[in-house]
From TrEMBL:
The chain crosses the membrane at residues 12-30, 42-65, 77-96, 102-123, 130-150, 162-179, 188-211, 223-245, 250-276, 282-301. Pfam families: EamA. The keyword Transferase does not apply. It comes from the Bacteria. This is DMT family transporter. Its main location: membrane. It comes from Benzoatithermus flavus. Keywords: Membrane, Transmembrane, Transmembrane helix.
Length: 304
């Protein structure tokens, strides 16, 4: 069953509910990555993350009878998108997180809707309406409020922020390009094939880097690390990417990106589960993100 068919109601309602779930899964990848980087080389972790996600999505495609879609894909576009739109941003994100904590990365993710709006305007002439701009600003404010309220003494610029922002720009470009270039494929095929292509590219680069001594064969095979890796690759990356494309198709990339501003709040909730705390400013930030997401959709809902 297609993910959007599991939600009863309008496409907007289904898209928003799936966006909430997808963002929660994606947000869990930040603390998971921070944990795994203690024992893994960034390049090897990037490969393991993408390979696990690709295997998970391939299994879902076969289990749901969508394997035929994988065989009729335009492989040139798949490899192009996998290399530039998946492998590059994922590696930049992981490398950036070696120089920035999980909360800082979550804060920077609040720039996704603004990046999407600017890119849509520059590349496709999609001039954002006033409610969309207001919703983006509210969402950025809410995401920043939720993040900064929980910042610890180690918060602040540490040099990885530029890499994370570059990763966000490439991810938005990839999302728009994939929906256009692979329009004949379903969301499961798009996400699975491009993840597999990205894993293949990183694997090839990683093999050359290991052979030349540029990367160290450093990884943590402990059971706890493998459990975290399995969750991150299959759920936080694989399943969340599938949900992301479904939401982007139902709501548009910019509105789907607005939901990612809840990522800092989810990171705080994960910290709460492991002994942290949630303060009123974080709850207020989450409310502002939700209001911003709804405000940005007012115009399209009225047209419908």
């Amino acid at each position: 069953m297609h993910p959007s068919q599991a939600v009863v109601g309008s496409p907007a309602l289904g898209g928003n509910l799936l966006a909430l779930l997808g963002t929660a899964l994606w947000a869990s990848s930040f603390p998971a990555t921070e944990h795994l980087l203690r024992g893994w080389d960034p390049l090897l972790l990037c490969f393991a993350r993408l390979a696990g996600a690709a295997l998970c999505l391939a299994f879902l495609a076969l289990a749901t009878g969508r394997g035929a879609e994988l065989r009729r894909a335009p492989w040139r576009d798949v490899l192009y998108l996998g290399a530039l739109g998946v492998a590059a941003p994922v590696f930049l994100l992981i490398l950036g997180q070696t120089r920035a904590d999980a909360v800082t990365v979550a804060v920077l993710s609040t720039m996704l809707p603004l990046i999407s709006a600017v890119m849509g305007w520059a590349l496709d002439g999609e001039r954002p309406r006033a409610p969309v701009l207001a919703g983006i600003l509210l969402a950025i404010l809410g995401g920043s409020l939720a993040s900064l309220a929980g910042s610890g003494p180690a918060a602040g610029p540490r040099g990885g922020e530029v890499l994370v922002l570059a990763s966000m720009v490439l991810w938005i470009w990839y999302s728009r390009a994939a929906l256009r270039r692979l329009a004949g494929l379903g969301d499961l095929a798009i996400s699975g094939l491009t993840m597999a292509a990205g894993a293949a590219v990183v694997g090839l680069v990683g093999a050359m880097a290991l052979a030349s001594g540029f990367a160290a064969p450093r990884f943590d095979p402990s059971p706890s690390a493998l459990v975290v890796l399995a969750w991150m690759s299959m759920a936080a990356i694989g399943l969340s990417t599938l949900l992301w494309f479904t939401c982007a198709r139902l709501l548009g990339v910019t509105v789907a990106a607005i939901h990612t501003n809840l990522a800092p709040f989810y990171v705080m909730l994960i910290a709460l589960a492991f002994g942290g705390r949630v303060v009123p400013q974080q709850v207020m930030g989450a409310v502002l993100v939700v209001v911003g997401a709804l405000l940005a959709q007012i115009a399209s809902l009225r047209r419908r």
